[in-house]
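Read as amino acids, tokens; as here:

___
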Amino acid sequence: MSAADFQSVAAPAVASMRAQGLDQKHYSDALDAAGHQYVDLVMEGGGVLGVALAGYIYLLEQAGLRFAALGGASAGSITALVLAALDEPSAAKADRLVEVVANIPMASFMDGKDERDDDARDFINTMLQRPGLAKGLWKAMQILDNLDEMQGLNRGDRFHGWLTDVLAQSGIRTTRALRQRMAATPFGWHLRPGSLHAASQLEGQPTLPALDPTKDYLCIVTADIATETKVELPRMAALYWDDAGAVNPADYARCSMSIPVFFQPYRVPLRIRDDAHRKLWCELAGMDDRDMDPARVPPFPPPEACFIDGGVLSNFPIDAFHNTRKVPTRPTLGVKLQWDDRSHTITKLTKLVTQTFNSSRHCLDYEFLRKNPDFKQLVAYIDTADHDWLDFEMNDAGKLDLFARGADTARAFLAGFDWNKYKETRQHLVGAYAQAWPGK
């Protein structure tokens, strides 16, 4: 397939968006000289369903939106990272993102324990077909060596190599380079003239502040189960790597996409370098002196970090860029890869296990949305129908369908989003927050 195939299936949504005049609406007060409107975007994880995220982004960009900060977990983190790496925030990048999506070698990511191992792929494909008990047990016996040797069916090496190459083609090999690219302030960066909330939005500044090269505009969520820490990368990278700026950002996505059992965890050696490093653990990970006491048994830190899929703790980190103290200059849009299903009948052991896992990965995100109901105005849900999130051998028709669904969901979201209403909501919340916690 080519990028043109994906663009073709999204064409009806693009045409409808323009016919409705949605490319003329206001969605943000952060603008550049060309009139592009800037938003932040957070994307849910969901395995191969992430193809739909590219369709969502494609439609938003066709409507004149550009992306300042990007976040996500698992598949959402991969899309966020690739989009961030392709070019500076002001550039049109969706067509190049589509090229990447069109050429993802998804089937090859099932790379087993070595180059000769096809048992993992056979097992996964068999399970997707809902086999009988006997056949399922037979296939499971064939992959016990993978689980015993590396705690996963697949190494994840091919994915890591592919993503490293994708980033390198855009000139990104280090976190330092990515941070610099994402902080490139667009030409003519300004606040929309006449904004009724300018005083709160600018926080006393005379003009819209430039993007800050010392700040991280990328948030990739992963779980370090060795220290029981929800990790946001690259913000917390200095906890795990001696030279965080030199880390290849592909490592972050490899951490976040490590679906338990499906991929082996990503491991990084751990040690406390000095007192400053010890204090950083306290600051970023909520530790205190008792946790860091060398006399504790077992001592902290463990020999290595063990990273698994960020979706285990937060599959939709919509809180990544939240600021309660001001009316935002740009909204943090969120896109999910499924409707929130809150009704389940638990009658079998398999359902008990899957819902235990699903509850743990959704509850933090549900709790944030409960406490910040204004964010419901910002979140869209892509109906991914009956596509399976672990179907790494999905056919072309399935990929095109997901992309089209993403594009049409974006069109529907833009039609219903009211930027001025959202700012009014936030203005009321800012006042309430100031009364409840004065001085903060």
The mean pLDDT is 89. The first strand starts at residue 30 and ends at 31. Residues 126 and 301 are 40 Å apart (CA to CA). DSSP finds 15 helices and twelve strands in the chain.
